[in-house]
Design brief:
mainly alpha, about 230 residues, disordered N terminus, two-stranded antiparallel ribbon, 10 helices
Length: about 230
């Protein structure tokens, strides 16, 4: 009687990059260089069996994504960052149980900036649903910074979470994150500019609301269907 396969301690999760992966390609960035892989080939390369291989693959792809983002190719940059994230997206239970604390820190030292790059791309693309996804990445990055003392990314995580939150009109929450980031990086001119821009937007909104209530945004007429007054 054939024996049942041993049960895995961790449930296998769906692989969002499965269709984009060519298992016949080499996984190591050293092999990529030796074989002369271009970006499109690197994006199809499988995950490495070694921890260090996966971290280095993610680092290299993030660097490629940075070049694309600097050229304002946000769509392609997001694609590359997503693949970089995939290489270091270890199952959380495996990370917590199987990895040493130092290995966990090494994983998230690579994963956090990729998450923040993805948030930045999503905000730049301004598509439906992207702000919520950007906030999720920035929030996850901030929590990892807190848990693993990744202090050099903490202000950036707060900044991008604030930018995503601001896009939804939650001014107070965004301001709180900008202020927290400014405490960590008091000389950062981008944070000062972001705070000034937020406060300007909030003033403009209040002025528009006042004008609306005062009936100054347009002529007031009666809605023929409801009999109610409406501003147009």
């Amino acid at each position: 009687v054939p024996q049942a396969a041993p049960m895995s301690l961790f449930d296998e999760e769906p692989d969002p990059q499965k269709e984009a992966t060519d298992a016949s390609l080499l996984a190591s960035p050293e092999d990529w260089a030796r074989e002369g892989y271009g970006l499109e080939t690197k994006l199809r390369a499988p995950k490495g069996a070694l921890f260090e291989t996966r971290l280095e693959a993610s680092r290299q792809l993030r660097s490629e994504g940075n070049t694309l983002f600097a050229a304002n190719d946000h769509d392609q940059a997001l694609k590359v960052y997503s693949r970089a994230f995939w290489h270091v997206d270890f199952e959380l239970g495996y990370v917590q149980i199987e990895m040493t604390e130092e290995h966990q820190r090494q994983v998230f030292e690579v994963q956090v900036p990729v998450r923040l790059n993805m948030a930045q791309c999503l905000i730049a693309l301004k598509r439906e649903g992207h702000l919520a996804e950007a906030k999720q990445h920035a929030d996850a990055a901030f929590k990892l910074c807190d848990q693993y003392h990744l202090d050099r990314w903490k202000a950036k995580a707060l900044y991008w979470r604030a930018k995503a939150t601001l896009g939804t009109g939650a001014y107070d929450d965004a301001e709180a994150d900008f202020l927290a980031a400014a405490k960590l990086e008091p000389n950062d001119k981008h944070l000062r500019a972001a705070l000034a821009d937020l406060r300007r937007q909030r003033r403009d909104l209040k002025a528009d609301q006042k004008a609306l209530f005062d009936g100054k945004l347009g002529p007031v007429k009666r809605d023929p269907d409801s009999g109610r007054r409406c501003v147009i």
